[in-house]
Write a structure and sequence with these properties.
Number of strands: 9
Strand content: 25-35%
Largest sheet: 9 strands, mixed
Shape: globular
CATH architecture: 3-Layer(aba) Sandwich
Distance between the termini: 38 Å
Structural class: alpha/beta
CATH class: Alpha Beta
Number of domains: 1
Length: 206
């Protein structure tokens, strides 16, 4: 079965348990500082898309900050959970590789730990779509697992597995063709045994 389809089917089965685990065992304080840093790159009252929004916690955080934000996720169960938890935020079931939004719809895109489930061969497709839907010289902010491998691994929920892609910072810089790296920062602690790096990249002039 195609890696993304298989991974999404797994998320659909364990959405609520997975989100509970990541919320309890993540580093929310640091994560929110990274969200705030992203907003500092953007104009006041920005339009942002949350790619791979999961249960919607980042979408809701940005909405409360005055951001015009929409969260998208390919997992229907995740979108259902997000709508239930945060009814005032906007959520759409959609694929980050091929969204429904017009060109230049957003000032920035946020992808927290969502590129990690995309095969490396699909990275350029995601980048092209983000470049299309953000305004010229817009911001692409994302986090990823640090490493140099990809493939199916056991999930944080016992008895389940999904596809993971790991990158080095140099590899990410090589993968970026339409954006220039502006800043990066490593999460101070391992999350579920993995090192995470946050990156901010600006779209190249058109």
């Amino acid at each position: 079965m195609e890696p993304i389809k298989r991974t999404i089917e797994d998320y659909d089965q364990i959405a609520e348990e997975y989100c509970k685990k990541t919320e309890e065992e993540g580093d929310r304080e640091f994560h929110e500082r990274m969200l705030d840093r992203t907003l500092n790159f953007l104009p006041s009252e920005p339009r942002v898309i949350d790619l791979g929004c999961g249960d919607g916690r980042d979408t809701e955080y940005m909405r409360k900050k005055g951001v015009d934000v929409v969260g998208i996720d390919l997992s229907g169960s995740m979108i259902d959970l997000a709508r239930k938890k945060y009814p005032e935020s906007a959520f759409i079931q959609a694929d980050m590789r091929d969204t429904v939004f017009p060109d230049d719809s957003f000032h920035g895109a946020w992808a927290s730990a969502s590129l990690i489930n995309i095969p490396k061969s699909e990275f350029s497709r995601v980048e092209k779509e983000v470049y299309r839907i953000v305004e010229p010289e817009g911001i692409f902010a994302f986090s990823f697992k640090e490493g140099d491998r990809e493939g199916f691994e056991e999930s944080v929920v016992e008895g389940h597995e999904r596809y993971y892609s790991y990158y080095t910072l140099d590899e990410i810089e090589d993968e970026l063709n339409l954006f220039d790296m502006v800043k990066s920062e490593r999460c101070p602690k391992k999350i579920f045994g993995s090192d995470f790096i946050y990156c901010w990249a600006r779209g190249k002039k058109r």
